[in-house]
Amino acid sequence: MSARISGISGKVGFNDLKQLPGFWTRKLGKDLYEVFIGPQHPGSGHMRIIIRVDGDVIVEADPDMGYVHRTMEKLGEGREWIKGIPLYERMAIHDACNVTLPYVEAVEKLLGIEPPLRAKYLRVLLCEINRIAAFLYGFGIFGVFVGHSTMYMWPFGDREVWVELADWLTGARLTHSYPIFGGVRRDAPEGFTDSLRKAIRYMRKRLEEYRKIYVDNPVIRARLEDVGVIPRNLAIELGITGPNLRASGVEYDVRYNAPYEVYDELDFEIPVFQEGDSLARVWQRVEEIKQSLHILEQVADWLDKHKGEQIMHDRFWKTAPPLYKKVFQETGRVKLVPVFALLKVPKGKAYARAETARGEISYYVESNGANKPYRVRIVSASARNAIVFKYILPGHRVMDLPTIYGSIDYFPPEGDR
Amino acid sequence: MSIDELADMVRNLLAEYVVNVEVGKDLVHVEVKEENVIEAAKRMKEAGFDHVKDVTAIDYPKEGIIKIIYHLSSYSKKELSRYVVGLGYSIPRDKNSVPSLYGVWTSADFQEREVYEGFGIVFEGHPDLRPLLLAPTVAELKPLRKDFIVKEEPIFKK
Amino acid sequence: MSKGNGDGKVYVGNVDVAAKKARKLLLGKLKLGKLVDWGTAFSLWPVHLTTSCCGCEFAAAWSPRYDNEQHGALPWVGSRQTNMILIEGTVTRKMACALRVVWEQMPQPKFAIAMGACALDGGIFYNSYNIVRPWEVVPVDIYIPGCPPRPEAVARAIIELQRKIRREGLASKFVEEGWRPDKEYVKPKEDLCAWWKG
User: Which residues on neighbouring strands pair with residue B91, listed in sequence order?
Assistant: First the structure.
């Protein structure tokens, strides 16, 4: 009996997969030990995986989530619409713009408004900055997992470049609350795009050095190659998302398949790998950083050409007192107009999704016409990727667990919400 | 494929099961009856909706119903991946067992566990139905139902 | 061994009393206590228990830019080899059990820093039904406000804790008395691990 495909055998054709290393395992009653990994462990923490091992081989894995479940869905129902933005941001504070953007979009769909073009570009700008920073964060945690201290130090040092840019743009290192209904909170400051271009040049150079020290390092390759293989049909069946999905050969990216903001006007590629193992997932992220840098270059050019345009939808902007407009003229900062406090959203339901660093996040928002949401259902990328542990870990050795955990780039606060 | 074409396609696909179809922006919502949901799900899967984006439930205490919705989309067919289809059905509030769609979509595994802990709805046929995020003692409160109220502090003290 | 024979004479010395006197002599008069405090202050090793999203800034605080290792603090993996716990943000009901277990495992003298608004009094999640206040679980020495606090604030908290240890002689008092006289023993009101039936 194969433990690895228990529960889904018979539904998907796995005949071609039987040759994979460690695919068949015996599940024995005796000599079966239960090992608790987490929530206090050297990697990212926050999560417990209960594994049952036969010798050194995992025969069953039970991800025990919820150590950071702060009940955002329920709390969101009791707060005004605008308060949802900082609340949902706490899911993944280092990827804040990507995570809150679909909520803002869903509410905009219900309101029937569309932000001005410059606001859309500014949103994309911060989204891509966040994406790069979040990938670097993931690399750093992965470095801790596989005991490669340099890979913790370097990406965390380089991440500060992007965090600093975001800080300059929004005023906060991590929790930006940047997109608001109908626009964004601040315009790009003077000289921002020049620094951005400098950061892009720097990052391109560094990626080459990462390749030398990490991805092409024979010790690391030996640990990553052919470990944690997620075949294409299994990836689709499990409904995993993000770079993990694309590393398994599925061409799916929300930015490309269901474009939002201005992604349909920008030129970029969706890298896809066929191997589906841990190494492919690392490469996938490296390639995606390159694409994000390419997007950022185009956004910087566009922003330079269209300076001083409006960044807030007319419906809200015309309610602003003269003092607010003066502040905007002088500092480029939009003060939140008072109308947001008692904003009533028309009755209806909306579904919005976006591609975060870890994959697709989706918001289902339902309004009954009141000043608070009736129901907000959030399913983040990590929440959908967590299922991987249950179905992929069996058959691997215990020492492969940190590798697989790290390469999935699972972020528990995002998964638990 | 436009959203209206997709709605027509779903309408033809589920023919006799359809109770109601709503077309929104980027979202088609199909209402079916509870007893038909497994058959409807199988047809949807054959048509290319290969994964579940989320499983959710919404409580309507005034009408006395709970709506359960499976949001579906496709990874393998590009024209379907543009939109999301919600396959939903309603049950009375006091009823607490519904058929599980784990047998159709493996990706519904953890999501159904989440609905179970939040609303106390038992998915019959789910092989491993335990609370996912909450401790069992907290899950007994059925916190996502509307009659479980969390206290909110107002901005201005009254 | 410390009993007298009834006529007021003690034939065997009271080891406990002798040890206490020796401790007092060594730590009090000979300034050895200062050495203990100095040593403890510069080896505050936080345990690798990340309770919530402030962990992002916790990680950044030990990154090359902020480099908290210069203060003698190094996040370490095993709870048995650490003496400080940095509570990063919200503590949920499930995590409270883990937090308490880790706290109990750590050797004395041990210190706790609560990081972020959620660790102070719930922060943005103040009315959530799934969180506990960290000060109900462990005795907290230093609070860091902010949501999330910047890495500089984490460094500041560590330096403040070092000052507190050296000023109040927390470590040497522990060696002398056997417990932390300045902090009450926090006993959770309810059984934090009651939910665990596995």
Answer: B66
Tens of pLDDT, residue by residue over C27-50, are 666 677 788 888 888 888 888 888
Note whether residue A151 is domain-resident. Answer: yes
Question: Nearest Cα to A367, choosing from A80, A135, A139?
Answer: A80
Looking at CATH, the fold of the domain delimited by C33-177 is given as: Rossmann fold (3.40.50)
Report whether A100 contacts A179 (CB < 8 A). Answer: yes
Report the amino acid identity of residue C136.
Answer: E
Global pTM value: 0.86
Q: How far is CA A150 from the centre of its chain?
A: 24
Distance CA C55, CA C78 (A): 17
Instruction: Give me the residue spans of the domains in chain C.
Output: 33-177
Beta-bridged to residue A186, according to DSSP, are A333
CB contact under 8 A, C65 and A46: no
- Gyration radius of chain C's alpha carbons: 20
Delineate the domains of chain B, giving CATH numbers in brackets: 3-139 (3.30.460.80)
Contact A370, A110 (CB under 8 A): no
Contacts of C138 (CB under 8 A, 6+ apart): C85, C87, C99, C100, C103, C112, C186
| Residue in the block written with tokens 């509410």 | A107
Rounded CA-CA distance A403/A171 in Å is: 36
Cβ separation A250–B58 shorter than 8 A: no
pLDDT in tens, A326-344: 877 777 777 777 788 888 8
Phi, psi of A168 (to 5 degrees): -65, -40
Q: Is the pLDDT of residue C1 over 80?
A: no
In angstroms, the CA A370 to CA B127 distance is 39
Residue A147's domain is classified under what CATH number? 1.10.645.10
Contact B135 C127 (CB under 8 A): no
Taking the alpha carbons of C139, C143, C146, C149 in that order, is the dihedral positive or negative?
negative
Which residues from chain A sit within 8 angstroms of residue C95, using beta carbons?
A: 39, 46, 67-68
